[in-house]
Amino acid sequence: MLFSESSSVGIDIGSSYFKLVQLRETKKGYELELFDMLPLAPEIIVDGAIIDSLRLIEALKELIKKSRLKTKNTVIGISGHASVIIKRISLPEMSEEDLAESIKFEAEQYVPFDIEDVNLDFQILGPREEPGQMDVILVAVKKDIINEYVAVVKEAGLNPAIVDVDAFALENTYEVNYEIEPNRNVALVNIGASTINMNILRGGISVFTRDSSLGSNLHTDALQKAFGVTYENAERLKRGESVEGVEPEEAYSVISSASEDLISEIARSLDYYKSTAMHEDIHEVVLSGGGALIKDFPRIIAEKIAVEAKIIEPFKNISVPKKFDISYIHEVGPIAAISVGLALRKPGDR
Ligand SMILES: Nc1ncnc2c1ncn2[C@@H]1O[C@H](COP(=O)(O)OP(=O)(O)OP(=O)(O)O)[C@@H](O)[C@H]1O
Ligand SMILES: [Mg+2]
Predict the structure, then answer these.
(1) CATH no. for 179-312
(2) 130-185: pLDDT as tens digits
(3) 13 CA to middle of ligand 2, Å?
(4) Predicted model pTM
(5) What Rg value do the Cα atoms of the chain yield, rounded?
(6) Where does ligand 1 bind, in terms of residues with CB under 6 Å?
(7) Pseudo-torsion of CA 82, 83, 88, 91, nearest 10°?
């Protein structure tokens, strides 16, 4: 019954914005049906945990009303190093059915939480070079976090049809919009307010994911400290707007130095990836999330880590009807990257 409607809505519940995307599949490909965002007060979700579920539910109801959402089936995403574990592991070759039976046992040594406290999923990637072994992506998500988010969605009157992982939603968005080149390693890097989600694709296949607990709040905090401004005014400064009593050049220099801290964190993850068995270079960084919109961020990251960097265009291959304000959609599109990937999910996908 959950899947009786043809299309579902992707709602990315971020700590600073709700992002809502609904797509329609036409003969010519995907078309944007609904797009909306709603800011959230920073104290409602902290470190990925829902602190004030009543306010979150109220805000979600407001978003549903504002966007005139008709569909109930909803896809949400979970992220954060404290809630999601994604590991590429090697196991003896076996069938999907057999692995489904034994996954709990196999996963135990890779998951740092009590195995009873997580929902497990896996995807078999295929055989390895060593005979008799196969590569598997193991995904473990904490049940209490899933339950918290699912409860909010239900309380707001929606059907939580699929709970996805943000890093995989990002990959989906990339796949729909870009040509995969077999020998190219692309790092997808989504910079939210309190999280950075990374997913490295080698020839289009995810080989490394990491969520870290830094995000563009680093810019906000630095601005608040440096100029004694409110959260709202710090947010204005980040968007390049002027705030009384703050010199734009000084704000820019505080922002740039916070960007460098964020970039060091990203560089550490990339270095870690290069130090693993794969030892491979990254050819391109594709940025998304609100943090990617910080002035000059792509240029600074490209300089610092000496890799090409660009901002994702999540609607590159998705047609946007005239009823939308195209320039607005293009401007905020990178913030919606994960919600587009959520909206692309179909029941039965993994
Ligand atoms: N135009 C802009 N210029 C600079 N920064 C921006 C802009 N728009 C949004 N941001 C910043 O991006 C962040 C929000 O991005 P995003 O919506 O991707 O985060 P989130 O999903 O709510 O957070 P998280 O996933 O970490 O919980 C905020 O810190 C906000 O200040
Ligand atoms: Mg986010």
Answers:
(1) 3.30.420.40
(2) 889 999 999 999 999 999 999 999 999 999 999 999 999 999 999 999 999 988 99
(3) 7
(4) 0.94
(5) 20
(6) 14-17, 192-195, 215-217, 220, 235, 238-239, 289-291, 293-294, 335
(7) 110
